[in-house]
C-alpha cells in the first residue's frame, strides 16, 4: 500500500505561482509513474500532468501546457507540480497519484486545494 500526501496548495492571485508536492510513503524510484489530476466543484476529474517511471518523459493536459511543469525527486520519494501563470479556472482540488505505468494510476492522495482569485 502506497500512501501519498499532497502539500503546497493555497490561495493565489491570477498570474501567480504555486508549487505542489507529493510525498510517497514508499520508495518510488523507477517503480511508479506519477501524475497530477484536479477536480473543480461540479466538474469531472481532469488530467493535469504525468511523468514516467524513469522521469524521461512527461505529459500535460492541454489546459496547462506551457504553464505547469511536473518533476520528481526519487531520492526523496517526492513529486512536484510547478504551476505558473495561474488562472481562476485552475481553481480545483489537486490530487497526486502513482501507478505501475502511465496512465494507469493505482494509488491516490487526498488532495490539496488550489484557489486562484481574479
Summarize the structure.
This protein is mostly beta strands and about 120 residues long. It is globular, with a radius of gyration of 13 Å.
Summarize the topology.
Elements: E1 4-7, E2 10-13, E3 18-24, E4 33-39, E5 46-51, E6 58-60, E7 68-73, E8 78-83, E9 92-99, E10 107-108, E11 112-117
Sheet-strand content, in percent, reads over 45%
Rg over C-alpha atoms, rounded to the nearest angstrom: 13 Å
Largest sheet: 7 strands, mixed
Per the principal axes of the C-alpha atoms, what is the gross shape? globular
**Helix residue percentage:** under 10%
How many β-strand stretches?
11
**Helix-strand sequence:** EEEEEEEEEEE
Give the CA-CA distance, first to last residue: 40 Å
Average pLDDT works out at 94
Which segments are poorly predicted (pLDDT under 50) over 5 or more consecutive residues? none
Describe the structure in your own words.
The chain has about 120 residues and is mainly beta. The protein has strands spanning about 5, 10-15, 20-25, 35-40, 45-50, 60, 70-75, 80-85, 90-100, 105-110, 110-115. Strands 2, 4, 5, 6, 9, 10 and 11 form a seven-stranded mixed beta sheet that branches. A hairpin with a 7-residue loop joins strand 9 (about 90-100) and strand 10. The radius of gyration is 13 Å and the shape is globular. The termini are far apart. The model has no long low-confidence stretch (mean pLDDT about 95).
Amino acid at each position: 500500500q502506497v500512501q501519498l500526501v499532497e502539500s503546497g496548495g493555497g490561495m493565489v492571485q491570477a498570474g501567480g505561482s504555486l508549487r505542489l508536492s507529493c510525498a510517497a510513503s514508499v520508495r518510488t524510484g523507477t517503480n511508479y509513474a506519477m501524475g497530477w489530476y484536479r477536480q473543480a466543484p461540479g466538474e469531472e476529474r481532469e488530467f493535469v500532468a504525468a511523468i514516467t517511471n524513469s522521469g524521461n518523459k512527461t505529459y500535460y493536459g492541454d489546459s496547462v501546457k506551457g504553464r505547469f511543469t511536473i518533476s520528481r525527486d526519487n531520492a526523496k520519494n517526492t513529486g512536484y507540480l510547478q504551476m505558473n501563470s495561474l488562472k481562476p479556472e485552475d481553481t480545483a482540488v489537486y490530487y497526486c497519484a502513482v501507478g505501475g505505468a502511465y496512465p494507469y494510476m493505482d494509488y491516490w492522495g487526498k488532495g490539496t486545494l488550489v484557489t486562484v482569485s481574479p
